[in-house]
Structures are given as C-alpha cells and as structure tokens.
Amino acid sequence: MLVNTYSRRIFNLAYQFSGTREEAEDMTQEIFLKLYHALVKYDFSRNFDAWLLTLARNHLIDEYRRTKWEKKSRDDFNEYTLSADAVSGPEETVLREESKKLVWEGFNSLSNEIRMAVILRDIQGKKYDEIAEIMELPLGTVKSRVNRGRLQLAKILREKKEEANDM
Amino acid sequence: MTCEQIEKLLSLYIEDELTPEDRRAVDEHLKICPDCTSLLSFLQETTESLSDFPELEVTEDLRAKLYAIPQTRRKFSLRFNFLLKPSLQPILAAATVLMTLISFYTFHPDKAAIDKTINRQFHQGYRTIGSLYSKAESFAVSLGEHKNSILDSIKSARLFGRGEE
Asked: Which ipTM was obtained for this model?
C-alpha cells in the first residue's frame, strides 16, 4: 500500500532534486528502506504525508552534501519530457519548451535547500505552510528561499535567452 | 524602494500575496524600472515552466524492488532480531571485551613474555593462597585451645545493663 500510494511522489521528488533517473531510483529505494525502519517511530499526531516528505527531504539533502551532486549533469531535458509522455500539442510552443529546458538545467546552480523549497512549491504545488512543516523551517524563511530560487532561475533564463538572441 | 527591495517582493507579487501597500509600491516601481519589469516577466515564465514539468511514472523494475524491501527486512529480522534484545546487551558487551583481550593476547608480538608473567603471577597467587590457608588452620587450632576460656568470659560478661546489678 505504501509503495502504491507514495512511490511515484517520492521518485519524482528525488528525480527533480537529483536530475538523473539512476540517482532517483537509488534514492527512492533508500528512502523506502528508511521509511520501513522509521515507521515504528511515527507520531500519529503528525500528518503522514508531511512526515514522509520530511524523511525524504532529509535523506536527499544529506546525500547531496555527501556526494556533491551539483557537480554532476542532469538528464537531458528531452529525455525527461519524452519519457513522461509529455504533451507537445499545438499550444506547446518551441519557445516554451526551450524555457523549460533552461529552467531544468538551471536547477544545478541552486543550493540544496533552495532547490528543495522551489521543487516543493512550484513543481509539487505545496502550500508555504506545508513546506515549512516538511522542511522544519519558519514560514518566512521558506518564502524567502522560494523567492531566491525563483529569482536565480529567472536570471539564468534571462541571461541564456539574451545570449541566444545576441547570436 | 530600491530594485533589491522590489526583487524580494516579486514572488509574493505574482502570487497576489502582498499587502495592498506593498503591491502599490511594486506597481509604482515597475512603471519606471524596465530592468525589474523584465525580471518579473522572466520570473513568471520560470514559475509557469516549473508548474509544467511532467510527473514521471515509476518503472515496474523499481516498483518490484520497493515491494521486496519489507520481505528482505523481515528475513533479516527473523534471523537476527534476537541479537537486538536489550537483555542480551551486557552479555554482548562482556563478550566484546573478552574477544578484545583474547585477540590482544593472541596477536601480541611479545606473547612469550606475557605467558611468563601470567605464569609467575599464577604461581605467586597459588603460594599466597597456600600460606593464607595454613595461617587459617593454625588460627583455628589456637582458637580451639582457648575455646573454654573464651566461652567462660562471654558467659560472665554483662552485655546489657549496669555492671553492679
């Protein structure tokens, strides 16, 4: 039941954070292993989703610190979209695809904590107070980290697009 | 407000979470600052791109591995769980100390000297015990000789009350 309900969510979080499918699969297994060990310590007064995401977030950030993923490249964005059977209908313009690709690649320049905050807010669509609970941080810090992450990505996007226009 | 101050408010601006006062300040600034206006437009493009990232499916192979985790754990726990019992911890700790001492003794480069010392200490201890035993024997004999006089003095002693009564 846990695998059915949460594997997709945890795998996607790990993939968005690490940027490579291989790392994400390894991390998902490690997170589930930790989950089974930690279940006996679960406090029933806490929201299970938030508790599990805290466990996942702690594992991902610890691994990031240990292995320095920022030095590794992320999977090619086309592979990411294709493997997810993303819709590339008429409204999906080339420009928009290009922006997504640049943002995806720009993730590697964000620090681990900021990257996690942006993923939870903008990709996973969590509310700020949920992110504060998951990341065990004050609400103001979460808002500030999300803003900083978005600004960094927006500046990367602007820089890359201006470079492309100048060529 | 400076551009730096405005930048800090842009996320909440696009999410419509600013106070009316802050929102007015950002609007006023954007009218006169093309740089912040351009940044706002890229910020919106960024959040739209992020919200558009697709969710990947978990492969069957990964799913199978995830299902297998509790079984692997259960096998381990059935076989070795007894080792984790708290009541066994002092025994395991003593065993660890013993193993350390044995390995120290076995692999010590000067093992012969240790053997010699142990032997000497053992014999010394044996001699001490022997002499203590013989002293105890002689004490018992002398006690037997004075047995009657000791008993008499105990009987005549007034342990309770005053001497003159």
From this structure: 0.85
